[in-house]
Automatic annotation (TrEMBL):
Origin species: Faecalibacterium prausnitzii
Source taxonomy: Bacteria, Bacillati, Bacillota, Clostridia, Eubacteriales
Protein's UniProt name: ParB/Sulfiredoxin domain-containing protein
Length: 320
């Protein structure tokens, strides 16, 4: 059994198989008793065939072969992976758009590296070198023609891909949810994320994921007569029976209440997708630990309010 290196970046460009697809692939390999197609490698690093190699790890008796390919750099390898996937698999529109953009970005970087090396060689030798590998049509036009799409589609895919990578960094696992169709993003949303400054991306991503909450908050700020939001929790609810928020305080009240609603919706969504955290004692510790911070903040805020009120009363009594 040859131990091949697994490069996470290479592996992440390959759309994952469903459980049924993986099971069917394993059954086919076991039935044949060997791999019909060689694994593609670059300097002992696996480039294509990650699912088949995972099955081989479970069944070392299966015969397989490798086919080495030569790449000048990692970007060329990534571009090859994307081009290979685009040409041979049934892909969802999201997967195809992502791979299209990733191929374009990788080939652009590879071309820059090539030109840099070409310049260095030319300077050392005093001559020039023919750009055979990168000659011909521009990268964008060539990729568009290869995939039967417009040049604009490739450029939009580039922004989409970069946006998905940023989103996956902000919320690990979101890319796979996009590929499975559980989550959908538009080109415009991903462009907005890409063009935002790094310190604002978390806020932009939250707006994209929860547009209904953002819209509700904007409505609350703009219209003090909007529908009542969910009240914030209080330590003594009896004292607020029949209480009406004064009109001049409504804007602040609604904004704070909407923030509470946003937190509640986030918790509900996360727990709905991770229900074991409600029943597993060890995972419950994680929830209780996460609950400490908001609870501690609200308790501190209430204590601070009581302290300021007490000091105000004392000051008023002194001057009375």
């Amino acid at each position: 059994m040859i131990n091949l290196k697994i490069d996470p970046e290479f592996q992440n460009q390959i759309p994952p198989l469903t459980d049924d697809e993986y099971k069917q692939l394993e059954e086919n390999i076991l039935k044949e008793g060997k791999l019909l197609s060689p694994l593609i490698v670059w300097n002992n690093t696996l480039v294509d065939g990650h699912n088949r190699y995972a099955i081989l790890q479970k069944h070392p008796e299966i015969y397989f072969s490798t086919m080495p390919l030569r790449f000048e750099n990692r970007e060329e390898a990534i571009a090859w992976i994307c081009r290979n996937q685009l040409g041979r698999r049934n892909l969802s529109p999201e997967q195809k758009r992502y791979l299209l953009g990733k191929q374009y970005e990788a080939e652009r970087k590879a071309a820059k590296i090539f030109r840099g090396n070409q310049y260095t060689l030319a300077k050392k030798s005093g001559g020039t070198h023919d750009d055979n590998h990168h000659s011909g049509k521009k990268t964008c036009d060539r990729i568009a023609e290869e995939n039967g799409v417009s040049r604009a589609s490739v450029l939009r895919a580039s922004h989409y891909t970069r946006g998905i990578d940023i989103a996956d960094n902000l919320s690990p696992g979101i890319k796979q949810k996009v590929f499975s169709g559980e989550v959908k993003f538009t080109n415009e949303e991903m462009s907005k994320l890409v063009l935002s400054s790094p310190d604002k991306r978390q806020d932009v991503f939250a707006e994209i994921m929860h547009p209904e909450i953002t819209k509700a908050m904007e409505t609350a700020n703009a219209d003090p007569k909007a529908d009542e939001p969910v009240p914030m929790p209080i330590s003594n609810p009896e004292q607020f029976k029949g209480y009406q928020v004064p009109d001049e305080c409504m804007k602040v009240y609604k904004t704070l209440s909407m923030a509470t609603e946003m937190m509640r919706n986030t918790w509900k969504r996360v727990l709905k997708n991770n229900q074991s955290y409600l029943s597993d004692p060890e995972k419950q510790k994680v929830l209780r630990y996460a609950m400490q911070r908001p609870a501690h903040y609200l308790n501190e805020l209430e204590a601070c309010m009581e302290q300021i009120l007490s000091e105000s009363i004392e000051e008023a009594e002194k001057t009375a």
